[in-house]
Amino acid sequence: MDDVDWYKSHFSIPEIVTGSGFAAPADGDAAREEFEMYILGPWNQSTGLRWGITLKNDPRVIGSAGFYKWENEPHRKAEMGYDLDPAHWGKGIMTEALEAIISYGFDEMNLNRITILVISENERSLKLARRLGFVKEGVMKESAFFDGRFIDDVMFSILKSDWRRRAADDITPPTGSGCPNS
Asked: For the domain that residue 117 is a member of, what is the CATH number?
């Protein structure tokens, strides 16, 4: 509960409100209620977990990411959400954090499938999902309601086998005439 003030401030940043498709907490009580629902609740109910994102050597939280709607055996799947202070966009921070979290999900939580829902207007997040290897599965037409209107959610997923294949491709040395010892 020590981070409720951060939560209220962070989730009131206009770019985060717009990118997530969720209204800012109305006041401190609303922020506390949301914090309990979205951060503490999933942990306490074993349905998810969320990490604070910090810069190396700086304890200030600049974002968060993690899993919710976690279903263990036999489904072994979870949805993922994330957010980052816009002052830190474009620096690779979220990519680095999500790669570690996705690996944790597959390695430590034994997930088979991770899903991300991104509102259709969030171009940065759509690109991030693709860059991480998530595959677009479809569009859920007008499934979200934000700012007085319905908006589409785009569903992406990645399977453990695809993540492993991607990781193997990243560490496989290039072959061909330009590579020493080829």
From this structure: 3.40.630.30
Beta bridge partners of residue 64, listed in sequence order: 52, 83
Burial track 149-161 (b if 16+ CB lie within 10 A, e otherwise): eebebbbbbbbbe
Residue 110 has what DSSP assignment?
-
117-137 b/e (C-beta count within 10 Å ≥ 16 → b):
bbbbebeebbebbeebbbeee
Q: Which pair of tokens denotes residue 45?
A: 């109910």
Asked if residue 139 belongs to a domain, the reply is yes
In a domain, 176, yes or no: no
| Residue appearing with tokens 């498709």 | 21
Residue 159 · residue 135 · CB < 8 Å: no
Q: Mean pLDDT over all residues of the chain?
A: 91
Does the pLDDT value for residue 40 go beyond 70?
A: yes
Host domain of residue 91: 4-167
Band (171; pLDDT cuts 50, 70, 90): low
